[in-house]
Specification:
Helix content is 20%, strand content 25%. By secondary structure, it is an alpha+beta fold.
Length: 270
């Protein structure tokens, strides 16, 4: 995903997930995600089968018409004729594909519409700044009473370690429970690392309803896979109990070092 403020991103509601259309370009305005209900089964064994609500379908049509002139051999034109969604890949009738709403009023973007894959919300300047704020806040690295530092990357302990209460799991791994703000920092960390090492880090985001959604890079194209949805407990904390996102306890000396960090922000006048 690449940062973009155009078009305005839509927010997933209910059980919707985010999907992105395969593109040969990894720059704006091509990398835009849209919310949809996604079937667990794949098309042609790998591609997601999204069903979009009308608002999202209209946003996709606007976006396709935006990027079409940049690569007309790859992107179709699209428009609505009443409740009918028209996908236009040429002037002939055989290149004119009609998508009618289903019984739920949603539009299935079929084989004529391109190849979709599971993704995360469109990156915007606002989300980038929010993630940067979380990553730069040293207080989110300081363990509170009863917490230790954990990491999903043992080679990057000081930068990639975050405080959590833990339960043991196996000989090396632990089950961490993160405070909400720390969980957001973990999500920001994984998102930033995924860009440079997608095979080692997941995509993740916190949805509008507070659900933490984990998208596994290697599994997202498999038939039957849907992203892991982690709901917070009554205190707003996230318990990460699953083998798809493994955490290890950081060495005690790293935890002790971070525990000695100041527990309040230093101002210019202090």
């Amino acid at each position: 995903m690449t940062t973009t403020d155009h078009p305005t991103p839509l927010t997933a509601i209910g059980d919707e997930l985010y999907v992105e259309l395969v593109s040969g370009y990894r720059v704006e305005p091509y990398t835009v995600s849209f919310p949809a209900l996604v079937d667990e089964h794949r098309r042609q064994g790998i591609w997601a089968r999204p069903r979009f609500r009308r608002e999202a379908a209209e946003a996709i049509a606007d976006w396709l018409n935006l990027v079409y002139p940049l690569d007309p051999d790859w992107y179709p034109l699209a428009r609505f004729d009443g409740d009918t969604w028209l996908i236009l890949r040429g002037e002939s009738e055989q290149h004119r594909h009609v998508v009618e709403p289903d019984d739920d009023g949603r539009y299935g973007f079929g084989p004529e519409g391109g190849c979709w894959f599971l993704s995360i919300p469109t990156r915007t300047t606002t989300t980038e700044l929010h993630d940067l704020e979380r990553l730069c806040d040293h207080l989110l690295r300081v363990p509170a009473d009863g917490e230790v530092l954990v990491c999903c990357d043992p080679d990057d302990l000081l930068i990639g370690a975050f405080p959590a209460t833990v339960e043991p799991r196996g000989e090396e791994c632990v089950v961490p429970t993160f405070r909400r703000e720390v969980a957001e920092a973990v999500v920001a960390w994984c998102t930033s690392r995924h860009r440079v090492d997608p095979d080692s880090y997941p995509q993740a985001y916190v949805d509008a309803d507070g659900t933490l959604v984990h998208v596994h890079q290697s599994l997202r194209g498999l038939d039957g896979y849907l992203p892991w949805r982690i709901t917070p407990d009554e205190g707003g904390n996230y318990r990460i109990d699953g083998t798809d996102w493994a955490f290890r306890r950081a060495p005690a000396d790293v935890t002790a070092f971070m525990a000695r960090m100041p527990t309040s922000h230093v101002t210019e006048n202090s």
